[in-house]
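User: Could you check the structure of this?
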Amino acid sequence: MKKADLINLDRTDLRILAALQADGGLSNQQLAEQVGLSPSPCSRRVQKLEVAGIIIKRETVLDARKLGLDLTVMIQISMDRHTPERFANFEEQVASYPEVQQCYLVTGQEADYLLKVVVPDIDAYQHFLLNRITRIEGVSGVHSSFVMRRVVDTAALPLNYVEA
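Assistant: Sure, the predicted structure tokens are below.
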């Protein structure tokens, strides 16, 4: 996206975005109070941000450990051929697996994809790896790294780079 294609945001828009990134469950009334607007203009601004595609969706973040999902794995995956069909098939398959939280097509290393996967334990991971990932046509290599501790784990974007 070129700089000319970016949406012009003012400081109030940025305050709205920051507040929603911190707590997507805020009611319109709570949000309006936080950013210093009355509810109607606040609602209109949020709708404008949604229509512009800046706010894509609102999610509830769950505590994986409290749900028994204690193992997070970063998986580097190599493909045997770099064709659009191979990549499309791989991406369609992994998008259907609820264990996959994130999937990125990457460059600069031997892997083609980087996945973040959450499962209950090592046995569940082994089953996931052997019965799903390695069975996808074109997967030629897998390297797994196990997360020991989450140091930074956020989906919030750095709004300090956005000009108001």
